[in-house]
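Posting for a labmate who doesn't have an account.
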Amino acid sequence: MPARSPSRRIPHLMGTSPAKSAKGAQLAVFGAPHGTPYKGIDHRVHAAAPDAFRKALKEDGEWLDHWDFDFNGRLLPDKGFKAVDLGNLPTKANDGRGNRKKIEAMTKSIVEAGAVPMMFGGDDSVPIPFLAGFAGGPPITIVQIDAHIDWRDDRYGERMSFSSTMRRASEMSHVWRIVQAGQRGLGSARQGEVETAIGWGARLISGKTIHREGIASVLQHIEVDSLCVICLDLDVLDCTAMPAVAYPSPGGLTYVQLTELISGIAAKARIGGFAMVEFVPKKDTNGIAAFTAGRIAMHVLAHVGRQNR
């Protein structure tokens, strides 16, 4: 059977043309295939991820009239909610500066239209301009759900790539708080970066802490009625649930822990934006990892739909 467009499979997701506007929508999806590259590191392995997520979303789109036991009801409200897919930005593999300008401008236009931006990356450098796009609005709390803390000031002389995401975010005047959940093992942080993050005031809740104390260990740092932008790096999930990432490792969060965490954030605060990154389609040999990622995006979509009722 030939694939059909999201507008036919998901009634609330209206079209995929980049020319479409977020005006009148409560949520707007866009893809950012490329971010800011490191010399010698091929980040093009993530470029097909946005369309892999869309394909996975179509699978759930056939069943929106069914009872969803994750939500004890329909996934989306019957009326009063519309999401629009603005397509993929025309990013280029070696144009970090141009990519950042495109991502920030798109995010800003969605926020100014009154919608919640949902960005599909791309590597973990694309959240830097995504977060910059919230400047000029209310202060935001960043909830980074990631196996790594990304506080390097630079790597290989590059300050805007995926090891420095939260370091650059900490320099943005509209970022009020940073809560980082799920880090484990090695990666993107030496002792100095950990001390810098803690010194700034970032709340670091390791994967081990979440396994031991539950998601309440994270939610205690979320202020009631705050505006939260969730940055999800899919490598936070255990490699058995999410093998299709650049750096899979054992000991990660389960799918249930992650979706319960997103649900807890939505119950306590307001989701103002969502970015999902670091997926490697070529490693997803049977499509299950993409379906898992798509289902996570549907959870966010459902919570945004409920907060806009």
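Reply:
Got it, the structure tokens are right above this. Residues 44 and 82 are 32 Å apart (CA to CA).
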